[in-house]
Amino acid sequence: MISKSIAPLLRTAPLLLALAVPAGGLLSAQPPAPSNVPFVKKHIYSVTANPRADIAAAISQARKEHRRIILDFGGDWCGDCQVLDIYFHQSPNAQLLAQHFVLVHIGIGQMDHNVATAQKYKVPIEKGVPALAVLDSNGKLLFSQENKEFENMRNMSVRSVTEFLNRWKA
Q1: How confident is residue 170, by pLDDT bands cut at 50, 70 and 90?
Q2: By C-alpha distance, which of 42, 48, 12, 13 is closest to 27?
Q3: Residue pair 104/70 in contact by the 8 Å Cβ criterion
Q4: What count of other Cβ atoms lies within 10 Å of the Cβ of residue 103?
C-alpha cells in the first residue's frame, strides 16, 4: 500500500520524467517515434535572433510566394516544442509547410525573451509552449493559439498538426 504522503509525488512523476532532458540530449518520455528516427534534442529556437527582422523577411518571402506565415514560439528546453518540430518534418506536414507556409521560430528563453513579440501576436506564452500564430502574406494576424492547443504535443498525434496546417494553408 502506498502512503498518502507519497501518492502525490507518484502522480507527478510522469510529468517530471517527460520534462527531464538527460545530459546526452535524448528525451526520455516521448511518444513512440517511427523506429527508424531516433528522437534527438535539436537546436530550434535562437534566443539571439531578431524576431522583428525574421518576421519582416518572412512577410517579404510570403508575399512573393503567396504563402502564409507560421510563428512558432518555444524553447529548445521544451519537450513538446521538440515533438512539434518532429511532426513538422514528417509527411504530409513537411510538404504542407513547404508549399503553403513560411515558418519562423521565435525563442522565448525561459519565458523571458521576445515577450513583447508574443504579446503583439496575441500568443500567451505564459500558458505554455509551443504556441503558434498564423499570419497572412501581409503580416496580418489570422489566428493565435490562445488556449494552449499544442502545449501538450507529446500526447498528440502527427495528424493534429496536419489538420492545423490544412485549416490555415493559403
Answers
A1: confident
A2: 42
A3: yes
A4: 15
What the chain holds in terms of domains, given with CATH numbers, is 7-168 (3.40.30.10)
- Tell me the C-alpha distance between 167 and 170, whole Å: 9
Residue 15 exposed, middle or buried by CB count within 10 Å (0-12, 13-18, 19+): exposed
Look-up: residue for cell 499544442?
150
pTM exceeding the 0.85 threshold for the entire prediction = no
Quote the CA–CA distance of 135 and 141 in Å, as a whole number. Answer: 4
Spatial separation of the C-alpha atoms in residues 42 and 49, rounded to whole Å: 16
The three grid cell numbers given for residue 50, joined into one nine-digit string = 531578431
